[in-house]
Amino acid sequence: MADAFADQDVIRRLLNESETWAFVGLGDNPDREVYSQARLLQERGKRIIPVHPSGAEVLGEKGYGSLADLPDGSAVDVVGVYRRAEYAGAAVDEAIAAGAKAVWLPLDVIDEAAARRARDAGLDVVMNRCPAVEWALRRHRP
Predict the structure, then answer these.
(1) Confidence at 4, pLDDT banded by 50, 70, 90
(2) Is 138 exposed, middle or buried (0-12, 13-18, 19+ CB in 10 A)?
């Protein structure tokens, strides 16, 4: 069922047209996968917003303790949920409440119920896919 949340048109649109990605789980540890993914998208012109309980600045961007802490009017195109699967649902619910346009759950972060809630709320959903891999593949697809 996770493949139901891997529509190539949605993936392509999110990678091509989104401007702002909030990364839930992005702290200042460069050894974490979320750090690498955020840096990659930042290098490709995306604005990133670190969301981590520490609220630390990461990759030169102000951090926030939660999506609810983002300033009013913050437009978030995509929320990347870099938490273990058992915590993903709460982050997806925060993304819905924050008015995000999409959620992206990376490899092995699978929560079908949360993905359906997001889709039912009108968000685009990508699950069990890696932005870096999809970015590389996208270069070779029409």
Answers:
(1) confident
(2) middle
DSSP letters, 52-95, are: -TT---BTTB--BSSGGGSPTT---SEEEE-S-HHHHHHHHHHH
Q: Describe the crossing of helices 85-98 and 112-120 by its angle, rounded to 10 degrees.
A: 10
Task: Read off the tokens for 26.
Answer: 């992005």
**How many C-beta atoms lie closer than 10 Å to residue 86's C-beta?**
9
> Are the beta carbons of 27 and 50 closer than 8 angstroms?
yes
| DSSP state letter for 122 | T
Domains of the chain, start order: 2-138 (3.40.50.720)
- Residue 139 confidence (pLDDT): 59
Radius of gyration of the chain (CA): 14
What DSSP state is assigned to residue 4? G
pLDDT number for residue 3: 76
Give the confidence band of 140 by pLDDT, cuts at 50, 70, 90: very low
- pTM, whole model, 2 decimals? 0.93
